[in-house]
Design a protein that fits this description.
Blueprint lengths: L1 E6 L3 H10 L5 E7 L3 H11 L7 H6 L3 E4 L6 H10 L3 E5 L6 H14 L3 E4 L6 H6 L8 E7 L11 H17 L3 E9 L8 E8 L4 E7 L6 E8 L2 E6 L4 E7 L8 E6 L4 E7 L8 H15 L7 H21 L3
Parallel strand pairs: 1-2, 1-3, 3-4, 4-5, 6-9
Antiparallel strand pairs: 6-10, 7-8, 8-9, 10-11, 11-12, 12-14, 13-14
Helix pairs in contact: 4-5, 5-9, 7-9
């Protein structure tokens, strides 16, 4: 039985507590949070012990789950890794690139499992369409959210867009050749809305728009590749694939079009999206990686690469700001 300690039990930390309770292979040893008010609420509601310090809780844990604000990630990660604990940390994995580089180095030296909470990798709509995505050449992304002061400790790039950066890097698997970016600070001290264009060495281009000052929520990603279009709605868990008909598409809705180079049969497919809890799935996946000695699905290297692109974007935005 693996013992887990949760560090930070605010909005997201409470989701983690609920989901850890559903995993039979683990036992929640306790939690640490500096807020007396939040801690009292959690102790009463969940019946889980609050520890007076992060160090004391880490001593009795096998898994350290870090859902604290980003500025605390590095210190907690470093403390846990040096104590040979397995670490699950919410995205972004660290506040600065220097911190991220040191975490990658420490994980390798300690030989522990480390997973970053890029939860959209476990979104059932994404999972349902992954088999259809093959060498996309153009990707369009819109991730919009209503303003919430809770997430403004980091920019919209590190708060929202980093989810899409991670998804794209996991699929394209090519080096970034060039990127351009513009962003505007509206309600917080960091960019609240941004538009980014990423060009990869293999010719793929990705356009990403993220905003945390929108009137409505949107989390959509569209892939365009040879002979196919794939659409994913991460929010409503809906999918769409339109492609030239193949032998696998016998039961699909089809229609014929004249391409100018002869008639083609088009198949319209809605891949089945299985109902699931993405947070529960990512935590279970991490436990399985520990038990089976596997590389976690979103490793420290994945987290580092997503952060690297995110910080390149922030540098571009900063250079484009008026004096």
């Amino acid at each position: 039985m693996l013992r887990v300690g949760v560090f930070g039990v605010g909005h997201l930390g409470k989701f983690h507590l609920n989901n850890w309770k559903s995993i039979e292979e683990v036992n929640i040893s306790g939690f640490f949070d500096p807020s007396d008010e939040i801690s009292a609420e959690v102790e009463e509601k969940y019946g889980i012990k609050r520890f007076p310090s992060a160090e004391e809780l880490m001593e009795i844990c096998d898994i350290v789950d870090i859902a604290a604000p980003t500025t605390y990630h590095f210190d907690l990660c470093k403390m846990a890794i040096l104590k040979s604990k397995h670490v699950f940390v919410e995205k972004p994995m660290a506040h600065t690139m220097d911190e991220a580089r040191e975490i990658v180095k420490l994980v390798k030296e300690a030989d522990v499992k480390f997973q970053v909470g890029h939860v959209e990798r476990f979104n059932p709509a994404f999972i349902a369409t992954k088999e259809y995505i093959s060498q996309p050449m153009f990707i369009e992304v819109h991730r919009l959210a209503q303003f919430n002061p809770r997430g403004t400790d980091v920019s919209v790039i590190l708060d929202l867009m980093i989810h899409d950066i991670d998804i794209i890097l996991s699929i394209v698997k090519s080096n970034v050749k060039h990127l351009s970016a513009s962003g505007v600070t509206v309600l917080s001290d960091t960019p609240d809305i941004a538009n980014v264009r990423i060009e990869f060495d293999n010719g793929c281009v990705a356009n990403l728009t993220s905003s945390r000052i929108s009137m409505k929520k949107m989390r959509k990603m569209r892939f365009f590749q040879k002979d196919a279009y794939i659409g994913i709605d991460f929010l409503s868990k809906k999918t769409e694939v339109i492609r030239y008909k193949t032998e696998k598409d016998k039961n699909a809705l089809t229609f014929d079009i004249d391409t100018g180079h002869g008639a083609k049969t088009i198949a319209v497919i809605a891949p089945e999206v299985k109902e699931s809890n993405a947070i529960l799935d990512e935590l279970r996946s991490f436990v399985q990686a520990i038990h089976s000695d596997l590389t976690p699905r979103v490793s420290e290297l994945d987290g580092y690469l997503a952060m690297e692109v995110a910080h390149q974007i922030l540098d571009k935005i900063k250079k484009n700001q008026p004096n």
